[in-house]
Structure formats: C-alpha cells, structure tokens
C-alpha cells in the first residue's frame, strides 16, 4: 500500500475480532513506531509496552463500566520521560501515527486511545505492572487487531488558509 493510500484508509476502529495479531505483524508495527522522528534524537526517552495478556487487558478494561479499548486484542502503550523540553506528547504522537499507518498497511484496525492513559495513571497497581523505569510516564495508547469489516475511506475537510 502506498503511504497516501494508507493515510486515507486509516480510521479509528471500535470493534475487533477475538483473534490475536501475528508476531510478524506486531513486529512491523513496532518497528514503524521506532522509526518515528523524535525531538532532539532522544529515543532513549521513549518506551513502548505491548500488552496481549487477556487477564491484564481485562483488568485494565474493568477500570470503567465500558470497553475502553473496544476489546482490541493488543494494547500498545507509549511512555516517555519528560526531559524538560515538553516534547513527550509530541514524540509519542509521532510514534503512534507511524504505528497506526503501519497497522492500516497490514490490514489491521487501530484506535488511538486517550481515556486508557488517564485511568492507568490513576491506578498504581496497573502502572506498577507496566514495569516502567523511573521517570517514564504513559502518554499514549493504541489498540490494534483484526476487524470484522471493511472501512470506507473518508474525505475530511479542514479549512486551509494560504499566506504566500
């Protein structure tokens, strides 16, 4: 799939099959995330956690009364160490976008999740189970998996102002 096609086809998927993604596809998604541009080249200030353990996923899901990652069989959490330059969110977003596009290219569904991060940060037990080094904080989460349908690309319109 060409890059622009993957960008157009990428949608937030809110329904997944109960089937784990392959290790080969997971590896491709993670490598795409690792190729993201990181401000100041501080890749050592980034950390990726992959959760595929059903019991642990259920424990996270039970933090609220709804399925907060839509039963995606793989949850990827991007954590960062804030070095004082305020690039942790921006760098995490770059990693996430690369992973969502790779997932789309591989025919996987994905969803960028926000609520999950807030809940994990508030729950010391789950936060501890992520085994993050001192100073790292979860910043972004991605659910990925096989979907039960095709999704039509959409043309979104955002107003553009040209100043030449």
What key phrases describe this protein's structure?
oxidoreductase; 6 helices; alpha+beta; oxidoreductase activity; Nitroreductase family protein; flavoprotein; single chain; Nitroreductase-like; 4-stranded antiparallel β-sheet; 18% strand
Structure commentary:
The chain is an alpha+beta fold and 164 residues long. It is 36% helix and 18% strand. It is built from six helices and four strands. The protein has helices spanning 3-9, 23-34, 54-61, 88-105, 115-122, 124-129; strands at 46-51, 74-81, 109-113, 136-145. It has a four-stranded antiparallel beta sheet with strand order 1-2-4-3, with helices on both faces. The protein is globular. The N and C termini lie far apart (34 Å). The mean pLDDT is 92. Residues 3-150 form the Putative nitroreductase TM1586 domain. One of its GO terms (molecular function) is oxidoreductase activity. This is Nitroreductase family protein.
């Amino acid at each position: 799939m060409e890059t622009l096609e993957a960008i157009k086809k990428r949608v937030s998927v809110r329904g997944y099959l109960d089937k784990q993604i392959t290790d080969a596809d997971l590896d491709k998604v993670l490598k795409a995330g690792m190729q993201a541009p990181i401000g100041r080249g501080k890749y050592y200030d980034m950390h990726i956690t992959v959760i595929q353990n059903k019991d642990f996923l259920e424990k996270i899901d039970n933090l609220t009364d709804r399925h907060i990652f839509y039963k995606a069989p793989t949850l990827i959490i991007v954590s960062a160490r804030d070095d004082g330059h305020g690039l942790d969110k921006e760098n995490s977003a770059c990693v996430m976008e690369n992973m969502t596009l790779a997932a789309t290219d591989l025919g996987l569904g994905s969803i960028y999740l926000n609520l999950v991060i807030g809940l994990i940060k508030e729950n010391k037990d789950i936060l501890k189970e992520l085994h993050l080094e001192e100073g790292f904080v979860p910043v972004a989460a991605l659910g990925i998996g096989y979907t039960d349908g095709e999704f039509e690309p959409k043309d979104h319109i955002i107003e553009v102002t040209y100043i030449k």
